[in-house]
Design goal:
Radius of gyration: 21 Å
Structural class: mainly alpha
Strand order of the largest sheet: 1-2
Length: about 375
């Protein structure tokens, strides 16, 4: 009997540098959010350089680029197959939605209980309508005038689900046509977005039209290009260990943060493309099993790390402020330690919550189609 894994996609071995890069991207998001909390608490003796705040944008950009690459790389032989689009979208929904819904519910309760002890003055309980829109991945404008869902980190998932929907449609066509259509459509949306003004708080441009025409969509295109190159030419093997490749990736990643911005820029996009090229188009000739295990765990935990780190940063912000306020160097070392703590906690969530939940729902929702195992999504 055919299993869900074989029915929904052809499994491909994890690419160690990609797994490591996923973890690094999650760390960039953790860093910028922890810096925000430390700054609010006055932990730094002077204002931080402006470029520091690009960490979050570059981290998200890398996530989007990796997503574009993985979607192409893992579905290369599914294009134009009957039902491929439906199977793909179900697989991605099961991968993204369950843990997001769970953390959103927990964050609503957590924020309401703890806002008195945080740097936030109030916490407005979300209305049922806004909660429903968040669950359906429909962007809207919140009370701050920002296009953020109930769980604010979910704004990136609105983009992800939009990309998955477009990609699912493309899977109905032959690969070359489908990939070209998605890349052209995303690029066209960004071009249209240059003519779309920001929506007004009450009456104005529809929020989804503005949201889904932002330049950040181009990161998906970057990843898709890398995926198409990998499928066409394979990876170049170098006489170095994969750990060395992962160290090499830190250079363009650091340049992207230093010379990028809180919005997509040409140099930031080029650096993200370079770091993804290093991770996806090159292979090391030697893979140390210990490093591969750590890198895989880092990558496996990256999505949970993105969704759960906010639960830890309040306490970490208080502790770091009390221990190292006024000492920038010490704070930087402790921020690195905080990333390790968040990664460790996220791996536990992945191992004991995210993966079992995804597997259980996969079995329940796909029994009628394929009665055995749930999908092992990339």
């Amino acid at each position: 009997m055919e299993t869900m894994t074989s029915a929904l996609h052809t499994h491909k071995a994890a690419i160690v540098p990609i797994q490591a890069l996923r973890g690094k991207a999650a760390c960039l998001v953790v860093v910028v959010h922890l810096l925000e909390r430390l700054t609010k608490r006055g932990a730094f003796p002077q204002a931080l350089p402006e470029w520091v705040w690009s960490c979050g944008h570059i981290g998200v950009g890398v996530f989007f680029a990796i997503s574009g690459f993985i979607m192409v790389y893992t579905t290369g032989d599914e294009f134009a197959r009957a039902g491929a689009g439906r199977r793909f979208f179900l697989r991605r929904f099961l991968r993204v939605a369950p843990i997001y819904y769970l953390t959103s519910a927990l964050m609503i309760a957590f924020s309401y209980v703890t806002f008195r002890y945080s740097t936030n003055a109030v916490y407005p309980v979300p209305t049922p309508l806004l909660t429903l829109m968040s669950v359906l991945f429909v962007p809207y404008m919140d009370y701050k005038g920002l296009t953020l869902p109930v769980y604010e980190l979910g704004w990136t998932l609105n983009y992800e689900m939009f990309f998955y929907a477009a990609f699912a449609v493309a899977l109905m066509a032959p690969r070359r046509i489908g990939l070209a259509a998605v890349m052209a459509a995303l690029t066209a949306l960004v071009l249209v977005g240059t003519l779309v003004p920001a929506p007004a708080m009450v009456v104005g441009m529809p929020v989804p039209l503005f949201f889904f025409t932002r330049p950040v969509m181009l990161y998906f295109v970057i990843g898709m290009v890398m995926g198409a190159v990998r499928l066409r030419f394979g990876a170049l093997r170098l006489p170095v260990a994969e750990a060395a490749l992962c160290l090499m990736m830190l250079i363009p990643l650091a340049l992207a943060v230093r010379f990028g911005a809180q919005e997509i820029t040409l140099i930031g996009a080029l650096c993200v493309a370079l770091v993804l090229a290093l991770a996806s188009l090159l292979e090391g000739s030697r893979t140390h099993s210990a490093f591969a295990i750590i890198a895989k765990a880092f990558g496996d935990a990256s999505y949970s790390m993105y969704l759960t780190h906010s639960f830890l940063l309040g306490v970490l912000g208080v502790v770091l402020t009390r221990v190292a306020a006024g000492h920038t160097g010490l704070l930087c070392m402790l921020i690195a330690l905080a990333c390790v703590i968040c990664a460790g906690a996220a791996w536990l969530v992945w191992r004991f919550v995210e993966r079992p939940l995804t597997t259980w729902l996969g079995r329940r929702l796909t029994t009628a189609a394929v009665p055995e195992q749930a999908v092992a999504a990339p």
